[in-house]
């Protein structure tokens, strides 16, 4: 059953609530938040990215998918200011290889969703940090199915730091293997999620 939301609005609260349905029954949710790849976070090779919500569609997904070719222009043009230093930011968006914990998280934030769209939700439980995918319709943005993705023991998360020097929505998540990844959490609710972790320097 799909959940309708206001057109053009990212349904943060509703996505968080729906993501909880995918958690293991023996784990207790502490906090969760919708998360996106951070500024300049690299995209892994296509075959390394998780394929999620395979075959799932909501009304309008097929038609909207046919229009995606026009978005390629934006994907090419948007990084151009970086070439001239206009938007260049300090620091690496990813430390550690793709096999590091941060690399695994970064990979999970770039899912392949061929027939619909998905919102990745980071979920902290009393045992693990999970990435859960909530289906989002391409045309109207309604929410649909949920699917569990990558996870790691919660004890592997070493710190979270707020990169306000980049923008108010940017954070870096560090792990015990000394890797980290840059993410975006755009909801005002993100502060409650971040407070669950030690602060990075």
Describe the structure.
There is one protein chain. By secondary structure, the protein is of the alpha+beta class. The chain has one domain. It has six helices and nine strands, in the order αββαααβαββββββα. Strands 2, 3, 7, 8 and 9 form a five-stranded antiparallel sheet that branches. It has a four-stranded antiparallel sheet with strand order 1-4-5-6.
For the residues shown, what is the average pLDDT?
Answer: 85
Q: Which secondary-structure class do the elements indicate?
A: alpha+beta
Shape: globular
Q: Give the distance, in angstroms, between the N- and C-terminal Cα atoms.
A: 44 Å
Tally of alpha and pi helices: 6
Give start-end ranges of low-pLDDT stretches: 1-7, 63-78
Note the run of SSEs as H and E: HEEHHHEHEEEEEEH
Radius of gyration: 17 Å
The biggest sheet amounts to: 5 strands, antiparallel
Q: Count the strands?
A: 9
Q: What proportion of the residues form beta strands (DSSP E)?
A: 25-35%
* Helical percentage: 10-25%
Number of domains: 1
């Amino acid at each position: 059953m799909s959940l309708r939301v206001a057109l053009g609005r990212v349904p943060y609260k509703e996505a968080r609530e729906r993501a909880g349905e995918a958690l293991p029954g023996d784990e207790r949710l502490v906090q969760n938040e919708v998360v996106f790849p951070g500024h300049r976070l690299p995209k892994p090779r296509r075959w390394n990215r998780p394929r999620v919500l395979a075959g799932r569609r909501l009304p309008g997904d097929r038609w909207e998918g046919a229009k995606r070719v026009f978005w390629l222009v934006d994907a090419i043009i948007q990084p151009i200011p970086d070439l001239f230093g206009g938007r260049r930011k300090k620091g690496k968006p990813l430390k550690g290889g793709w096999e590091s914990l941060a690399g695994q998280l970064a990979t999970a934030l770039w899912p392949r969703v061929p027939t619909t769209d998905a919102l990745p939700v980071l979920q902290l439980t009393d045992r693990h940090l999970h990435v859960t995918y909530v289906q989002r319709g391409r045309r109207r943005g309604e929410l649909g199915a949920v699917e569990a993705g990558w996870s790691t023991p919660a004890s592997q998360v070493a710190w979270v730091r707020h990169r306000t020097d980049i923008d108010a929505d940017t954070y870096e998540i560090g792990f015990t293997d000394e890797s980290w990844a840059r993410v975006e959490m755009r909801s005002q609710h993100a502060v409650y999620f971040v407070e669950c972790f030690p602060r990075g320097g």
